[in-house]
Design brief:
Blueprint (H helix, E strand, L loop, with lengths): L1 H12 L3 E10 L2 E8 L4 E8 L1 H4 L4 H11 L12 E5 L2 E7 L4 E2 H8 L4 H20 L12 E4 L2 E4 L4 H7 L26 H4 L8 H16 L9 H10 L5 H4 L5 H10 L11 H8 L5 H5 L15 H14 L1 H11 L5 E8 L6 E7 L5 E8 L2 E8 L6 E2 L7 E6 L5 E6 L3 E5 L6 E2 L7 E5 L6 E6 L8 E6 L7 E2 L9 E6 L5 E6 L17 E6 L6 E2 L7 E6 L5 E5 L6 E5 L12 E2 L6 E6 L5 E17 L9 E2 L7 E6 L5 E6 L6 E6 L6 E2 L7 E6 L5 E6 L6 E6 L5 E5 L5 E6 L5 E6 L3 E8 L2 E2 L3 E4 L3 E4 L6 E5 L11 E5 L6 E3 L4 H6 E9 L5 E7 L4 E6 L6 E7 L5 E9 L3 E20 L1
Antiparallel strand pairs: 1-2, 2-3, 3-5, 4-5, 6-7, 7-8, 9-55, 10-11, 11-12, 12-13, 14-15, 15-16, 16-17, 18-19, 19-20, 20-21, 22-23, 23-24, 24-25, 26-27, 27-28, 28-29, 30-31, 31-32, 31-55, 33-34, 34-35, 35-36, 37-38, 38-39, 39-40, 41-42, 42-43, 43-44, 43-45, 46-47, 47-48, 48-49, 50-51, 51-52, ...
Length: 895
């Protein structure tokens, strides 16, 4: 646990240092910030795990660190000292403010040419100096490059060498960690000789690693991204990387060639010194070099397998093992059948442009545009011209889809689905009674496939329906009506299969535009049959479209960003082979493909959300201030009972994790660190635990962690979807939401949790301070068949309810609901989106329904994101977001 290790470290350091806090992991080490008491300065202390320290000669490790500590260079963070006690091994360095390059890449994915070149040259300068002193880094990667101010500094110089050498008591030629089965370096950045465990690694391995970093900075991915560890090591040895210019065609040719020379398989074919690389990069660190083609760097001949190299490779393969080779050939046997060509922006209107649909002939695009609560349908020629509005602003319209002959466009409103002539006219509404939406014409235009809900109950799951061309006689396809919701159907070219999205049905809907909850793409026979899931359920997978040859393109966040993937299918719709990633860093929201399969339209969607706060006293006149900053997406937050901490979820580290931060701001502390997404943290009444839900198992489960994030235990983990936990005020139980539209209670039974109990068939938002009542924001018919939408107080059993008599001034401005919070003071707070597109938070008297505005964001570019907020004793905390999107086109080419 963190507290145990921190205590051990403090005992080892004595009174000379005061260990202040843990920064988090850094590869195989744990990182702490401490204060040098005598000099009153901060230092960073990295602690190696006991199992690694056990195989190391401490004296030799200390001597090697002392040698590395002699490095004094403007772009090197120096090592200060090394020490050990028992199984605890550590080394120290100065504390320097800034962020590592990995954090920068997580935010922006790829860098401008000038910025990337400047970073690379400064790292190359550091490498050149260190290599002259006889020190090879051996683990160059973004995590070991610190960006402080406008400069790059390299961390951990000499540490890998110290670890390797100190496994021998007598000689650096003796056993090393590598020979003991411990990998030194990081697979994605290892030179081929490192991957092959060659004991004679020299400075040219650092040049290879810097080439991988350069590739990632400019392409948004490493050369062998998407492979597992064994495949990656094998690919470094046997597979030529795709030229970086294929991922980023605008790169100056000379710069692209300089990077690819770093990645040559044989060390003698690379740049022979970091100084040579530094000079080669110089022309591209200025505006002229970054924007105009320069004199090309001398081009190296393509790598060829000579008899000598074949013999060497055979020996290397013997070291690595047959498993590597098998995985590599499996990868090489699944090349993409299409590649991305030119891209071009198609719209640049004010506000959001979403849900593009390209016409069958590839000449026009239909799309929805407007604010996140009120869209109109437009059509526009891709060759240019003015966008034509097909619908008015009286009712929000989304999800346009063309008829096969291009004469009509189908679209959805909140009430029903309509069909309108493609150049304007009177819309004709569907005849259905079950609210069909996100519909698509079959290729013969004789049927439609839609998302719909069974009419028997408001809590019914959402499935895929097949109906007549005007929505008549809808029939649900068995197995598609999941509790997670199904939507976005797409017909196969022969109309025999329907692809659709299972889960995250709010992804396309108004206020939840850009929702990042997980979903899967599935395929079902159009005449009925068992659905087949073709993607995992551990990331966002959405917007499937069929290629003319019967395969599927879709959007997935499996690689971190929302990119386009290709999945080949068998004739029955089952997947054939692994999916192939076609783009990197695209950030697409939805896609559409023309009949020929050569022109694709997509919306580029971006969102940045952060936490803001305003004092309750004096609202709504006081000025707000931000608590978090940066390019991240925060979806929920919760104030600790003592009002000193905020828990929230964020994708700052790539996927959604749970963090905490002081309410006054400062450095966030990460509480969850796995590859799964975690959401909706909620503090226990004593402030010692945080409940949240995680997608680690593929469905949502509720877990508990301590306030330091060191222990994570399940409260309830089933195949159902359990989410959004709320602690009861006595700390003896949880209230949680289970899809679809049901609330459950979960009570502690000693040291464990009991069985969940159904409480109420609606979405309860919060618990009263005394824990005996609930507040719910119910939609039409949720409380009873005739109950109108509003705010309801529900008793402790969920058996009775009463509506708050909301005042007319609030309802006149109401467009859609947000979040309800029952504060400790007894007041109820309610957020909403107003009819003019702005967002506000109101205080509502629980007895009279009297309401007043406490916060109003009128700026059209900012909103209270998804209406999320919480109330402390003195302040109100809320998430402010900015959503932007435009529509682009992309050429697809077969290869």
């Amino acid at each position: 646990m963190t507290s145990d290790l921190q205590s051990q470290l403090q005992e080892l350091l004595g009174t000379a240092y005061r260990v202040d806090r843990e920064l988090g992991g850094a590869g195989m080490s744990r990182v702490f910030v401490a204060t040098d008491v005598e000099l009153d300065r901060q230092v960073v202390i990295k602690v190696l795990p006991p199992d690694l320290a056990a195989g190391i000669n401490i004296d030799r490790f200390r001597r090697e660190i002392q040698l590395a500590a002699r490095l004094q260079h403007p772009h090197i963070v120096p090592l200060l000292a090394a020490g050990a006690k028992g199984s605890l091994l550590y080394y120290t360095m100065p504390f320097i403010g800034g962020e590592n390059l990995r954090t920068r890449l997580t935010r922006v994915r790829e860098l401008p040419v000038q910025e990337a070149t400047k970073i690379l040259r400064e790292v190359a300068d550091a490498l050149s100096y260190a290599h002259e002193q006889g020190v090879v880094h051996r683990d160059i990667k973004p995590e070991n490059i610190l960006i402080s101010g406008s400069h790059a500094l390299v961390l951990d110089f000499g540490v890998s060498k110290a670890l390797s050498s100190s496994t021998s008591e007598t000689s650096t030629e003796g056993p090393t960690l590598t020979s003991l089965g411990i990998a030194l370096g990081t697979p994605a950045y290892m030179a081929p000789e490192q991957a092959a465990a060659d004991p004679h690694v020299d400075a040219r391995a650092d040049i290879y690693a810097l080439g991988v970093v350069a590739y990632e900075l400019l392409a948004g991915r490493t050369p062998f991204a998407g492979l597992n560890q064994q495949q990656t090591l094998s690919a470094h040895i046997t597979t030529q990387p795709t030229p970086v210019s294929q991922h980023r065609p605008q790169l100056p040719p000379g710069l692209a060639q300089a990077i690819m020379r770093c990645l040559e398989k044989h060390p003698s074919d690379r740049w022979q010194s970091a100084d040579d690389l530094h000079s080669a990069l110089e022309p591209y660190s200025f505006t002229s070099g970054a924007s105009a083609p320069m004199t090309p760097v001398s081009i190296k001949k393509p790598f060829k397998w000579t008899p000598q190299r074949i013999a060497v490779a055979a020996g290397i393969v013997g070291i690595i093992g047959a498993g590597f080779i098998a995985s590599t050939f499996a990868f090489k046997g699944n090349p993409p059948s299409m590649v991305v060509g030119n891209t071009k922006q198609a719209t640049n209107m004010a506000g959001l442009e979403i849900h593009p649909a390209i016409s069958p002939d590839g000449r026009m695009v239909a799309f929805a545009a407007g604010s996140f609560e009120n869209y109109r349908i437009y059509v526009r020629q891709l060759s240019g011209g003015r966008a034509i509005a097909l619908t008015d602003s009286m009712q929000s319209a989304e999800w346009p889809r063309w008829s096969p002959d291009g004469s009509q466009i189908m679209y959805a409103t909140r009430l029903r689905t309509n069909v309108i002539p493609s150049f304007g006219g009177m819309p004709v509404s569907f005849t259905d009674t079950i609210g069909l939406t996100s519909c698509a014409f079959s290729n013969k235009a004789d049927r439609v496939a839609c998302s719909g809900q069974r009419p028997q109950s408001f809590a019914a799951s959402i499935g895929i329906y097949v109906a007549g061309p005007r929505g008549e006689n809808p029939q649900i396809l068995a197995g598609t009506d999941t509790e997670r919701g199904s939507f976005a159907p797409a017909w196969s070219p022969d109309d025999k299969l329907i692809a659709y999205v299972d889960g995250n049905a709010q992804f396309l809907a108004g206020a939840n535009l850009g929702n990042i909850a997980p979903s899967a793409v599935a395929v079902v026979p159009a005449g009925g049959g068992k659905p087949v899931r073709i993607t995992s359920f551990t990331s966002l997978n959405t917007s499937p479209v069929w290629t003319p040859d019967g395969n599927i393109l879709y959007i997935s966040s499996a690689g971190g960003n929302r990119d386009i993937y290709l999945q080949r299918l068998e004739s029955d719709g089952s997947p054939r082979g692994d999916p192939v990633r076609l783009t990197t860093g695209l950030n697409a929201h939805t896609i559409s493909l023309d009949r020929s399969g050569t022109v694709l339209t997509y919306s580029v969607f971006n969102i940045a959300t952060n936490i803001w706060t305003t004092p309750l006293a004096g609202l709504p006149r006081t000025s707000p201030r931000s608590i978090t900053s940066g390019n991240q997406t925060i979806e929920s937050l919760d104030v600790s009972p003592d009002g000193s901490w905020l828990a929230y979820d964020s994708n700052l580290s790539g996927n959604q994790d749970i963090y905490k931060i002081p309410v006054e701001g400062g450095e966030p502390q990460q509480l969850t660190r796995d590859a799964a997404d975690e959401f909706a943290p909620n503090w226990s009444p004593d402030g010692k635990q945080v409940a949240y839900h995680t997608l680690a198992s593929g469905s949502r489960d509720i877990y508990i962690t301590d306030e330091a994030g060191t222990r994570h235990t399940p409260a309830i983990a089933t195949a159902a979807e359990e989410l959004s936990p709320i602690w009861y005020p006595d700390g003896r139980g949880l209230l949680f939401f289970r899809l679809p539209n049901t609330m459950y209670t979960l009570k502690r039974e000693g040291a464990s949790w009991g069985k969940p109990k159904l409480l109420f068939r609606s979405a309860i938002a919060d618990i009263s301070p005394e824990g005996k009542r609930y507040v719910s924001g119910a939609g039409p018919g949720e409380m009873c068949p005739t109950c109108p939408p509003g705010i309801y107080i529900v008793d402790s059993t969920g058996g009775s309810y009463s509506a708050l008599p909301l005042q007319a001034q609030m309802m006149r401005r109401f467009q859609s609901p947000g979040t309800l919070v029952w504060a400790k003071t007894g007041a109820i707070y309610f957020s909403m989106t107003e009819k003019d597109g702005s967002s506000s938070i109101w205080q509502v008297d629980q007895k009279t329904g009297a309401s007043q505005v406490v916060l109003h964001l009128s700026d059209s570019d900012r909103e209270i994101y998804r209406g999320v907020f919480d109330v402390g004793s003195k302040n109100i905390y809320y998430i402010v977001g900015n959503r932007q999107s435009d529509i682009w086109t992309m050429e697809l080419k077969k290869q």
